[in-house]
């Protein structure tokens, strides 16, 4: 009888430890997220299921073109691409991205831009000064984010710059639907 009690106790202990481990991993390391809407087309599609690495920015800062998840409001998280980093100036002129006055290629937009008819613009002109609350350069611990679907995205052009405190983490892995499973390439 004592052996059965010990076996049950061992099972309960194992389940509690597994539950705690799952909770810690979910809260502090990885979490699932579902893409809602067309703002990251063509890179991400509506209803793509992804894994967010919450640990990534505890060890380092965001890099240009990372796809990040951040708290846009207290109830809503958004997925966008990092375009501008602290200390930089950002401008889009004639559908071309300029960082600190230098042209920067956005390879992830090339196919979409090729689909446009003559004289159509994919990203309308803007400078940092046009962004709500922005200054001449991006302040420390802030980033500028844009959706890949530049004509239909609520991003820094409307929300303003995103502080590091708002970042949930970095995402680059789609796990559902199965025909889209994989790591996103720049």
Automatic annotation (TrEMBL):
It is a single-pass type II membrane protein. Its main location: membrane. The chain crosses the membrane at residues 12-35. It is an enzyme of class 3 (hydrolase). SUPFAM superfamilies: LexA/Signal peptidase. InterPro entries: LexA/Signal_pep-like_sf, Pept_S26A_signal_pept_1, Pept_S26A_signal_pept_1_CS, Pept_S26A_signal_pept_1_Lys-AS, Peptidase_S26. It is found in: Cell membrane; Membrane. CDD domains: S26_SPase_I. Keywords: Cell membrane, Hydrolase, Membrane, Protease, Transmembrane, Transmembrane helix. Residues 9-176 form the Peptidase S26 domain. Its EC number is 3.4.21.89. Gene3D superfamilies: Umud Fragment, subunit A. The active site is at residues 39, 80. The keyword Secreted does not apply. It comes from the Bacteria. Pfam families: Peptidase_S26 (PF10502). One of its GO terms (cellular component) is plasma membrane. GO terms for biological process: signal peptide processing. Belongs to the peptidase S26 family. NCBIfam families: sigpep_I_bact. This is Signal peptidase I. It comes from Aquibacillus koreensis.
